[in-house]
Design brief:
Chain lengths: ~180, ~230
């Protein structure tokens, strides 16, 4: 059975079609939630923001003009919500996952993890700044192209490439701090 | 200097993350493949890119999902919104094209009558305005300290971004109680262009409005605009 395109669903949502909303939500609820969670690092906040994102989709479907893909539009709304939440609660967000990663130098578990480069790499990915977490997640996990990331983040494509490079460079520095030297970047 | 130059990534190296994720176009993919085949150092760096992708995927996949109550919660929020009038999706990209579509949908007779009525309305309106201006000038009229009379019909506008948690009802109350109206938006950054006065205000007066509104519970960001 052919799948209804996102654009068609948005058109139906603009006419207050709840079934279309349910279908679109079913498609994007998990990826958007995981993107937002990666940014705000708090499952409760992420879940609230997730429903706010789709509430905006419902409200603004009539203004969607198709200048970008529907997914790009939805992720840009999600990004905006997540950044706003981070501005409102910078302290709380640090208290979540970051606490588990900071000052791990003497932790026996980390000493053990150091033997496992993958685990250290994963810990370092979690330690990136919001700006870097965002782009790394969009590229590696959400599989967004350069053009799509540019549309979501609102920056030129050339900046997308260099920002990803600097995120990886930062990752490299974090790995060096953990005793793993991988060279440039 | 050489070290600095060495540190600059090549275009191919910048593309490695997207190559690993499979999101490059075929032409760029071929370029990266050729470079990887001929440059062992680049291939070694690509191995790290693959490792990063695998770990980020693991982070994402183990992040869990929204709880089962999320759909209910979303539709409860949707139900709480004021009912909206169904709006037609724009089928043409520009306002001009939409006007043209509308005119094309009218019969020639209707179009001719509409044009005649519109011309008459414009002539009447012009006459009334001219009459009003002459009367005002004859009576001496008045100029406010904040704005010249000839600019008063333009209105005063600001850019507003509402707080993310603000509901449509909150926004409607905010607009009603202040006698404001949204004239455009949301644009990039979720900014709305809001008319805050029917007449053009002096910059100081407008700044006072902005300062007052900055403290409003629904306003997240506010700025002056033309």
């Amino acid at each position: 059975m052919p799948t209804t395109s996102d654009e068609v669903l948005i058109g139906r949502i603009a006419k207050s079609d709840r079934l279309a909303m349910e279908e679109l939500y079913g498609r994007y609820r998990v990826p958007v939630y995981r993107f937002v969670l990666r940014m705000v690092r708090n499952p409760t906040v992420a879940e609230d923001l997730n429903s706010d994102v789709f509430l905006d989709v419902w409200r603004q479907a009539g203004t969607f003009e198709g200048r970008s893909a529907v997914s790009t539009w939805i992720f840009s709304i999600a990004r905006f919500k997540a950044l706003n939440a981070l501005q409102r609660r910078p302290t709380e967000e640090l208290n979540e996952t970051a606490d588990a990663i900071e000052d791990q130098a003497d932790d026996p578990e980390i000493a053990l993890a150091k033997k496992d480069k993958a685990a250290v790499l994963r810990a370092c990915l979690l330690k990136l700044s919001a700006e870097h977490r965002e782009i790394v997640n969009l590229v590696y996990y959400q599989h967004k192209s350069v053009e799509e990331v540019a549309g979501i983040v609102g920056i030129p494509e050339a900046t997308v490439k260099t920002r990803m490079f600097y995120a990886r460079k930062k990752l490299s520095e974090l790995l060096t701090e953990q005793g793993i030297e991988r060279g440039w970047p | 200097m050489n070290a600095a130059k060495q540190n600059e990534p090549s275009e191919i190296e910048l593309l490695l993350p997207w190559y690993a994720a499979g999101t490059l176009d075929p032409h760029e993919s071929q370029q990266v493949e050729r470079a990887l085949a001929s440059d062992p150092e680049l291939a070694a760096r690509y191995a790290w890119v693959r490792a990063e992708l695998e770990q980020e995927t693991l982070v994402g996949e183990t992040a869990g999902e929204p709880s089962g109550r999320d759909v209910k919660s979303l539709f409860a929020k949707i139900d709480a919104l004021p009912a909206r009038r169904p709006r037609r999706q724009p089928q043409s990209s520009s306002f001009g094209e939409r006007i043209a579509e509308f005119l094309a949908s009218l019969s020639p007779r209707t179009l001719a009558w509409s044009a005649a009525v519109a011309a008459l309305a414009i002539a009447l309106q012009a006459g009334l305005l001219a009459d009003l201006m002459i009367k005002e000038r004859t009576a001496g009229g008045y100029d406010t300290a904040s704005a010249p009379a000839d600019a008063q019909s333009e209105g005063a506008y600001v850019l507003i971004r509402f707080k993310p948690q603000t509901t449509a009802t909150d926004i409607a109350n905010f607009l009603d109680s202040n006698k404001f109206s949204i004239v455009a938006g949301p644009s990039v950054g979720q900014l709305f262009r809001v008319r805050v006065a029917p007449n053009k205000l002096a910059k100081d007066d407008l700044m006072r409005v902005v300062t007052t509104l900055q403290g409003d519970k629904v306003v997240d960001f506010i700025a002056l605009t033309d």
